[in-house]
Amino acid sequence: MPQVRKNLERLTNTVVQGTKPSMILALNQEFKGIDDIVMLTIGEPDFNTPEHVKAAAVADIQADDSHYGLSKGTALLLKNAASFLKDRYGLDYDPKTELLTTIGVTEGIFDTMKTLLNPGDEVIIPQPTFPVYGAAATVCGAKVVPVPTVDDDFLLTPARLTAVLAEHPKAKAIVLASPGNPTGVAYSETQIAALAAVLKQHDIFVVSDEIYSELTYDRPHASFAKALPEQTILFNGVSKSHAMTGYRLGIIAAPAAIISQLAVIHELITTTQPNVVMAAGAEAFGPGENDAESMRAEYKKRRAFLISAFDQMGLHYVYPDGAFYFFVKIPDYLEQDGFKLARQIAKEAKVGLTPGVAFGQAGYMRISYATSLAQLKVAAQRLSAFLKMQKAK
Ligand code: PLP
């Protein structure tokens, strides 16, 4: 085999092994080609970015803000992000030393894994999960320790945490996401306190992804950073709260000693955030800190509609406290292979769903309600008819 091809194979193996996001994207692309399909695969808000945020971005461009910016984020962005975390969740971070802005939480996850993990280190990741954590850890040569939560309503329990830490005493980090993707399940303050009591006894970092914190529907969001400030590396951002996925802006909040290390990796990879994005982010976190309110109200209506629709269809799911997903159990009269079932439903019912196995949990499908109520009604009718036909077979 020619040397170039050998080299290419080596390259592909290192990066792709163990990573799954591409499976989800590929299926999405396939479904988009189906005429009249209702896509409930979507992992991003269907709303537009608030007008005042767009205006801030335009003003920044008009002001010729076109030179290299500050790598960690502009002073205004960092100040407003710190106020957002304080006002919304009671978290105290020094904007100068304990915050960093990144190209979305996604870059923050990579920076963090690269900073924390050496090849061979272990990182604990409860399943099912957003696939980027495991992919990033794998790219860093680390080993993922998956922990199933399917029998515990998709929450990591203190007992299971204690057991996994006993088995993996050298694990460097644990990833927790609340509210979580793909389940929408969120930890309550009491549940967080119980996990924190266990984690405090271990020399382990908590990588806490709270990107959906603004989208909780029954109770205010509770943050791991409040219970475990010294161990937690907290992610948040504007993608979900302000419908700004395309702007690419995330924040990391953590003790200064961690931020200074993360900042080195961030600067190496990116030099800096685009200035226009930082200007928009400062507006979103500052004057727009409550922008999610109207979107939250709309998502809540959609969630209520789907709860009654799924209940009528006899579908089982764990009650989603937040985000915009249901994680629905595949009824036993249906095809159990998630990918095959997703393709069958797309073709026969014209509804696009994401198989749970893409998030590390077979036997479930993720259903997103980041789409209009009108579309959800069409999808529910189609799914109901599909289930009736399958049941009758
Ligand atoms: N974290 C979770 C749990 C997500 O579901 C997503 C996107 O779907 C992200 C992070 C990505 O966030 P960002 O757009 O800030 O990179």
Automatic annotation (TrEMBL):
Example GO molecular function: transaminase activity
Keyword annotations from UniProtKB, A to Z: Aminotransferase, Pyridoxal phosphate, Transferase
Cofactors demanded by this protein: pyridoxal 5'-phosphate
Signal peptide stretch: none
EC number: 2.6.1.-
Major enzyme class: transferase
Domain of life: Bacteria
GO biological process: amino acid metabolic process
Aminotransferase class I/classII large domain span: 36-383
Family affiliation: Belongs to the class-I pyridoxal-phosphate-dependent aminotransferase family.
Protein name listed in UniProt: Aminotransferase
